[in-house]
Amino acid sequence: MTSILILNGPNLNLLGTRQPEVYGTTTLGDIEAQCTEAARSLGLTLAFAQSNSEGAMVDMIHEARGTHDGLILNAGAYTHTSIALMDAISSVGIPTIELHLSNIHAREEFRHTSYIAKVALGVICGFGAHGYTLALQAMANHLEATS
Ligand code: DQA
Question: Residue 125 Cα, ligand 1 centroid: separation in angstroms?
Answer without folding.
Answer: 9
